[in-house]
Amino acid sequence: MDTSHLLNLREYEPLAREKLSRMIFDYYANGANDDLTVRENEAAFQRIFLRPRMMAGNAARSMNVSIFGQPMNAPILIAPMAYMMMAHPDGEAAVARAAAARGLNMVVSTSATMALEDIATGVPEGARWFQLYLYKDRAAARDLVQLAEVVGYKAIVLTVDRPYLGYREADIRNNFGLPPPLEVKNLPPDATRDGLAAYVSPLFEDNLRWSDVEWLKSVTGLPVLVKGLLRGDDARLAVDHGADGIIVSNHGGRQLDTAISGINALPEVVEAVDGAAEILVDGGIRRGTDVIKALAYGAKAVLLGRPVLWGLALDGEAGVGRVLDLLLQELDLALALCGCRSLADVTPDLLAGYSPIQERAVR
Ligand SMILES: Cc1cc2nc3c(=O)[nH]c(=O)nc-3n(C[C@H](O)[C@H](O)[C@H](O)COP(=O)(O)O)c2cc1C
Q1: Is the residue at 3 inside a domain?
Q2: Is 2 among the domain residues?
Q3: Angle at Cα 134 formed by Cα 252 and Cα 242, nearest 5°?
Q4: Residue whose CA is at the smallest distance from ligand 1 atom 15
Q5: Is 285 in the pocket of ligand 1 (CB under 6 A)?
Q6: Which CATH number covers residue 119?
Q7: Is the CB of 63 under 6 A from ligand 1?
Q8: Which atom of ligand 1 is nearest to the CA of 80?
Q9: Which residue has the CA at smallest separation from atom 25 of ligand 1?
Q10: Which structural domain, as residue segments, surrounds residue 152?
Q11: How far does the centroid of ligand 1 lie from the alpha carbon of residue 59, in Å?
Q12: Which has the closest alpha carbon to 107: 295, 249, 265?
């Protein structure tokens, strides 16, 4: 379906709901328990207002950013998301191509339905990072990380908020399982690839410790980010154990329901880390102004989740491309209307309620 008539990211979801089977749509859209955190993720951005600057002489603008020395055309990455071939047969490769064509970075999930090397070789250009769910089998985890490195992934994102699966009631009701012949491609060699087993994942470590970050640093030369932190003290521990970056995230509300939103947790993480690591945030980003708000609170970049899946479901690579283009256009216009020439101009004083106290929090 051609999606070029859609005007914003939110318009994609109801159309994707019509197109996808109930089991697949629910899996993608679902949060845990009452979906309170899913809703809060978007609502939290809607409670924040901006203090735009005028007369800034900013007709020429740039959204460029560099993270770990890796240039990106905008501070927007594709969040790691499982099972993209359920949305469209072109799956992860279509998303990788759409992102690369725009100079944006995609984070590929451990639970991808295409092999890491196939996603990489089909799409030579473009930065890709690899998101790791740590296997209990550390040798298999090490092999996967080293494969990612060899085939050109540029950072490892260790997701730590999924030691157990959140209580996703719709998935239980629908008896969710990956529909055959789809399978999780990046499992240890002797693992069962059955769809339901992949979802429940007894292979993943359920006893994560900070020393696992040190272990990961010892098996890769790539930058390591820890994804799924919502507290300043945890962020500091991550840095003390060697993390190069933090992704402030509640996993799109799919793990602990009533967990705080990423954007609301961001100020304390920024303060605690105090410049010692790159900080990214995700959850509920749907508008260009949401990106501005996250950057004004001190994030280097944001990750975009579900709208990518809706674009993929509706029109494959072109649908994802349109979702990204809409968000990029919105971000550019928001920068223009806020009086910013570049991301360096996106500072805490753009936030309504800005005060010296807040300035300390977002320093
Ligand atoms: C369908 C789906 C699958 C996901 N799979 C993963 C995953 O495999 N690894 C991971 O770290 N996060 C995963 N996430 C969480 C996202 O990376 C991200 O934190 C979240 O979706 C961002 O929120 P948003 O969807 O509101 O933009 C998944 C999210 C969704 C919606």
Answers
A1: no
A2: no
A3: 90
A4: 251
A5: yes
A6: 3.20.20.70
A7: no
A8: 17
A9: 305
A10: 9-362
A11: 35
A12: 249
Residue type, 320: V
Q: Is 28 in the pocket of ligand 1 (CB under 6 A)?
A: yes
Is the pTM here over 0.90, yes or no? Answer: yes
| Distance of alpha carbon 222 from alpha carbon 203, whole angstroms | 24
Residue 190's nearest CA partner among 237, 225, 143, 128 is 143
For ligand 1, atom 20: residue with the closest CA? 252
Centre of ligand 1 to C-alpha 354, Å, is: 31
- Specify the residue for token string 């197109």: 19
Whether the CB of 284 sits within 6 Å of ligand 1: yes
Q: In the chain, how many domains are there? A: 1
Whether 264 lines ligand 1, by a CB cut-off of 6 Å, is no
pLDDT of residue 318: 98
Q: Could you report the per-residue pLDDT of 21-74, keeping only the tens digit for each?
A: 999 999 999 999 999 999 999 999 999 999 999 999 999 999 999 999 999 999
Helices marked H in the chain — which ranges? Answer: 12-19, 22-29, 36-46, 91-101, 116-122, 138-150, 169-173, 195-200, 211-219, 232-240, 262-273, 288-296, 306-338, 356-362
So which residues are the catalytic ones? Answer: 251
- What are the distances in angstroms from CA 193 to CA 113, 140, 201, 324? 11, 15, 10, 32
Q: What pLDDT, in 10s, does the model give residues 174-188?
A: 999 999 999 999 887
Asked whether residue 1 is domain-assigned, the answer is: no
Task: For residue 55, tell me if it sits in a domain.
Answer: yes
**Contact criterion met (CB below 8 Å) for 86 and 30:** no
Using the CB atoms, write b or e for 236-258: b if 16+ within 10 Å.
bbbbebbbbbbbbbbbbbbbbbe
Q: Whose CA is nearest to atom 27 of ligand 1?
A: 305
Alpha carbon of 282 to ligand 1 centroid (Å): 9
